[in-house]
Specification:
alpha+beta; single chain; BirA Bifunctional Protein, domain 2; seven-stranded mixed sheet; 242 residues; 8 helices
Length: 242
């Protein structure tokens, strides 16, 4: 909603999720690095901005926190001019060719696929980062814009880094009637979103955004297997105190 006023909006804040998974990559409270940008030509603009933001953040940390990085044994990545990008369909095909396990048609990436694809990206493009795009409509939130040229898929992406998804993002729906229609397809009542829809009704620019999971990013930089080790008070399905 803020992007219609400020064009670019940035936020660092806590996210609380009723996360049923009890894995090394899920917690119920995490810190999210969010951004939204307006007046985009396509979701690729959001991916380009994330590339620039990550490069700047990593360069700044390397410049200002040498002592801490050495103390923690951090392995800081390098980001080139661009991060390679493939579609989910291509990602499944690459994974299937490497493993012999057919994942064609799956709506998301398995954790093992993420590891395989990152190794592939490192070998083929010398990049520890990899964008995967065009996830199915049913796997993305109701506000994600569908790809008009590929029905059933969305103008969305994940960013993989050293075998783990660290970002989800994409282009948002900015047209009022389009958002109403998609809400109904998701069996949502537009009347329950009256204040949210005011922004669409009175004018939003084409826009998109993303969320970076800080704990996941930190875990990959520090090469720890469990993201609970990257937060002071991990919250999961079985722990809420201290």
């Amino acid at each position: 909603m803020g992007v219609g006023v400020f064009e670019r909006v940035f936020e660092v804040g806590p996210v609380f999720r009723a996360e049923p998974h009890q894995t090394s990559r899920h917690i119920n409270e995490y810190t999210s690095l969010d951004l939204e940008m307006g007046f985009i030509d396509g979701f690729e603009d959001v991916m380009s901005l994330e590339t620039a933001v990550l490069r700047h953040c990593l360069d700044t940390v390397k410049k200002n926190n040498t002592y801490e990085l050495e103390m923690l044994g951090a392995n800081m990545p390098e980001i080139g001019d661009r991060i390679p990008s493939i579609t989910l369909e291509e990602a499944h095909r690459i994974s299937s060719e490497i493993t012999g396990k057919d994942c064609t048609g799956e709506p998301d990436l398995e954790p093992e696929e993420e590891k395989i694809l990152c190794r592939y990206s490192q070998e083929k493009w010398d990049s520890e980062f990899l964008f995967v795009t065009h996830f199915p409509t049913e796997k993305r939130p109701f506000y994600t814009m569908d790809d008009p040229e590929n029905p059933g898929t969305t103008l969305s992406f994940d960013l993989l880094f050293r075998g783990l998804e660290v970002t989800t993002g994409g282009q948002r729906i900015h047209e009022y009637e389009m958002q109403i229609e998609k809400m109904r397809k998701f069996r949502l009542n537009p009347d329950d979103f009256e204040s949210y829809l005011q922004a669409h009704k009175y004018g939003l620019p084409p826009h998109g955004g993303l969320a970076i999971g800080l704990e996941r990013m930190t875990a990959r930089i520090l090469d720890v297997d469990n993201i609970r080790l990257t937060t002071m008070f991990p919250r999961d399905a079985k722990r809420i105190t201290p």
